[in-house]
Amino acid sequence: MPSARRLLPVLILLGLCLWPEAAHGLPRIDVSVGGGDAMAPGQITGALKILAALTILSLAPAILMLMTCFTRIIIVLSFVRQSLGVQGMPPNQVMAGLALLLTFFVMAPVGKKIHDTALKPYTEGKLTEAQALEAGTAPLRRFMLDQTRVKDLQLFLELSNTPPPGTPKDVPMVALTPAFVISELTTAFHMGFLIFIPFLLLDFVLASILMSMGMVMLPPALISLPLKIMLFVLVDGWHLVVGSLVRSFLS
Fold first, then answer.
1. C-alpha to C-alpha distances, 150 to 76, 145, 154, 229, nearest whole angstrom
2. For residue 90, how many other CB atoms are within 10 A of its CB?
């Protein structure tokens, strides 16, 4: 044991002396992007492109909800469920899935134009990034303008101190997007109100009948719920609602 204790400081000192040589023989780890000059212009441009792509991917749900027909569809479908009085049927997953499928169906022509005029020429090298972005935005801007009320667009143009645009392509997206969302909300609430009217009248009639029969303690919703579902099924309600929704974007 004493010899081991005397050898321990020697071994430590020997290790400290040999550490620079050992570290010199280890492979060098380069953590810079691209393995070269981290401040090279080409590498900075590539990093910015990656950052822009990640930003677009993170904003994809918001773009899908606020710049397509998804907002109007999901609100109208929610009004249908509320007017029927069945709070959990169809489930939220089914409602969102149906709204998403209808959104893809309505936006398919717009997506095809974007693919033909922007994405395909860009992948073939015929357009630059700026040209592809401008060409791809045009069909979406045209769709949003067709569904946006003039008064809503004028509101945001005035708030942003933007002069009235001369052509549709001159309309700034920063003013068009919120105007489009407000117009979609207004249209969706108009359609929801029209959906509520027949079911509300049915509730009034049943409540009057129950009161005239002296059945005050019986909740009218208990009787009206199956009648609402039967009425909705007999008139083929889902067919009418979905058909009206899709036609509202095609008109």
1. 22, 9, 6, 38
2. 15
Asked whether 192 and 76 are in contact (CB, 8 A), the reply is yes
- Over residues 3-24, the pLDDT tens digits come to 444 444 433 433 444 444 444 4
Mean pLDDT of the 179-191 span: 91
Amino acid identity at 72: R
Distance CA 175, CA 158 (A): 9
Closest CA to 202 of 84, 70, 118: 84
Which tens digit of pLDDT belongs to each residue from 22-76? Answer: 444 444 444 444 444 444 554 555 566 676 666 666 666 777 777 888 889 998 9
Please give the helix or strand (H or E) that residue 186 lies within, else none: helix 173-212
**Residues 6 or more apart whose Cβ sits within 8 Å of residue 117:** 135, 136, 138, 139
CA-CA distance, 77 to 86, in Å (whole number)?
Answer: 12
Could you give the CA distance from residue 57 to residue 73 in angstroms, rounded to a whole number? Answer: 23
Report how far residue 161's alpha carbon sits from residue 155's, in angstroms, rounded to the nearest whole number. Answer: 10
Measured N-to-C along each axis, helices 70-84 and 220-234 cross at an angle, to the nearest 10 degrees, of: 130
pLDDT over 70 percentage in the chain? 74
pTM of this structure: 0.69
